[in-house]
């Protein structure tokens, strides 16, 4: 209960900026309550003075009263709903934006352990659930409870004995409603995580469609999806069961209440203790309570669902940012590009991936990282990018520990071509200038030319304005890589990180791109990671890594003479029937 209160209070804090709208809406909801109260109250003179005493002067007013009341109630309701829905939507928009921006800042470690599907489901479904709590509830509760209050007042004022009788009976309906609400919450919570599973299955299947087709697992994926859907249905069915139950149960219990009250009231009229008008007035008040009461119990369900959603959203918002700017972080202007590793050790989990790495790289040097798969090459590139912080030791750029620099300025000095090419579903031009927003068309063109991408881009139906599909699906692997290289070239950063940047190119275009990169590397510091050793032959220094430890360092020639791991890797490639090494 305490936790729920805290979540709810936090949820409401998002509504605070829209106080004005909400207040207006609340005011209007008082209008709605007043009109319902007036209806119940007017029943008494209507019966006693018009129907029974036949006061026809008064009767003439009735149609006008009906229309006026309806108009007043309608206007109040309109104002109420419009302003509360807009403020709810605005608050929810804030939450969604905050959630997204927070997610963007979360560490790679977080993304390694949280599926994209779950995150999508939280940003969409869970946030939607929360909307109800912020908007509907705030004012529904006020509208319905003031209506109830007004009706209760009328009932007691008219005949307190009969009203008291009604109030002994009505609470009977509240208890089962509360039980039902609890159940709904439980199942909605599980239903939401089941929905996350469905989203995840979708996301995985669509983004991995090629693998699915290549391995002919369409049926398997479909079965998996059907199973996820079925398990979602099992949860949602229970939610439906209880939410469908709530109205009939309420209605039934209310009818018992009405029967008892009616019987009691009729007895009082027959004993001349109250007038017919008073009887109908109290009855009208009680009947008019039905709708707000029903809504209130529904509100309870909505609140429960919303709290479930809010809990999951806040969980992410509370996820601490692992990589943040230090308090007085330095802004690194264009650096010279001296990079050094001082006794850097790192592990993703418990297993050490980098062991005591020491490395001094001078401005303009080209350092190649080679070694078997899983040796830790990409990890080193990731550490320079500060995707993760070292567990021990430090990494310096121009003598500054990168943890003391602003992330923004650190990244302005880096250009990464990752092993996994990623392109956005946008135009070629937009993809190239991603991260270099000020670039001119001429600069984009020049970068594409240097990456040997210009030719194929010009052959595309709409040239630089061609949309390349999800993740660049409409391009070949090598074309995608060349776009990523162009993107890095355009960035014009003093430190280049090339992780298997040319692995998907044929030997000829690789040689050409290499040539372009060599021009680019001239006055920058470059880290090149490659399995194809021909790519790194001309590096100033080659680091041979194995299980996170530097086994050998030297130039190509020195390493060949050393006759160690490098030589072995080299000879293996050399024996390859394809002339990979020249
Ligand atoms: N996010 C992660 N969480 C846990 N372990 C990871 C993560 N990323 C990589 N690893 C592990 O760290 C080790 C080094 O991985 P890394 O990606 O640096 O290898 P690599 O040398 O780049 O290999 P490859 O040549 O295949 O690209 C591997 O054993 C890998 O299993
Ligand atoms: Mg790698």
Shape: elongated
Question: Main β-sheet: number of strands, strand sense, barrel status?
Answer: 6 strands, mixed
Widest sheet, order of strands: 6-7-8-3-9-10
Radius of gyration: 35 Å
Describe this structure in words.
The chain has 582 residues and is of the alpha/beta class. The chain has two domains: 2-317, Up-down Bundle (ABC transporter transmembrane region fold), CATH 1.20.1560.10; 329-413 and 525-576, P-loop containing nucleotide triphosphate hydrolases (Rossmann fold). It has helices spanning 2-13, 19-52, 56-59, 62-105, 108-113, 116-158, 160-169, 171-207, 209-214, 218-270, 276-317, 377-384, 407-412, 428-432, 441-450, 454-459, 477-491, 507-521, 556-562, 565-575, and strands at 339-347, 352-361, 366-370, 392-397, 400-401, 414-417, 495-499, 525-529, 541-546, 549-554. It has a six-stranded mixed sheet with strand order 6-7-8-3-9-10, with helices on both faces. Strands 2-1-4-5 form a four-stranded antiparallel sheet, covered by helices on one side. Helix 10 (218-270) packs antiparallel against helix 11. The N and C termini lie far apart (72 Å). Residues 112, 348-349, 353, 373-379, 419 line the site of adenosine-5'-triphosphate. Magnesium ion binds at residues 377-378, 419, 499.
